[in-house]
What does this fold into?
Amino acid sequence: MAMRSYVKLLRKMKLSAAKKKGRPYTIIAGCAGFAVALAKMLSQSSQVLIIAGKKDFRAVSLPPDGHIITGDVTDPDAFTEADVESADTVVAATGDDNVNLLVAQLARDVFGVKRVMALLNDPERECVYRELGVPAFSPALISAREIAREFSGEKVDAL
It folds into this structure.
């Protein structure tokens, strides 16, 4: 058995075991700091797999049951390798808003993933995400909101 096939089989076995334990399966497209931090947080309650672009791949420390595959995050073959049909959630978390929109639409419209979310890097593009029905989260907008709250004197909970 080829090494790549063996790795795929092991990943499917671990995913199947996680599903039996009632843990959701989350795929994160992207390998930047945000994606890795999110993967670490979600791994407490979810089986997590990161799809990292070959040019974006860097050594990341994932939890023991976290997985990473390399490939083009917009390539349907990478989604197939990640067993996207079994995913409960796909989060598009690259540094490119166009890629994030494409990943979210691919997961939702082609592979039928019910819950997709995307990182919004440029807050000016929020209307595009909304128009396409892709839930988006902008670290810039969230941070600005918290700073504005601090300036207005409202109590802000510590993170």
